[in-house]
Amino acid sequence: MSNADNGATGWRPDTSFWQLSGGLVLVTVVFAAIPAGFNWQPVGLSDGESTNQLLRRVQWLPVWALAGWMMLRRRALLVPLLIKVNPFLVGFCLWAAASLSWAEVPSGTVNRLAQLVGSIMICVAFCVASWGRYRLERLTLTALTGLLVVSLIMVFALPRYAVHNDPTLRGLWAGVMSSKNELGIVFSLGLMFGTFAWLTGLISQRYFGGLLALVAVISVGASSTTATITGVMAATIVWLSIRPPVDPAGNALALVLFAVLLIGLPYLAATLLSGPPTVVDILGPVTEALGKDISLTGRDDIWSRVLIEAREHPVIGGGYGAFWLGPGGPSDWIHQELYWIPYQAHNGYIDIFNELGFVGLGLVVGFVLWHLKQIGQLWWIDRPTAAVHLALLIYTLVSNITESTLFRPLTLPCTLILFSSLTLSRTQLQQHFDRARPVSAPQAVAS
Question: Quick check: keyword Transferase in the entry (predicted)?
Answer without folding.
Answer: no
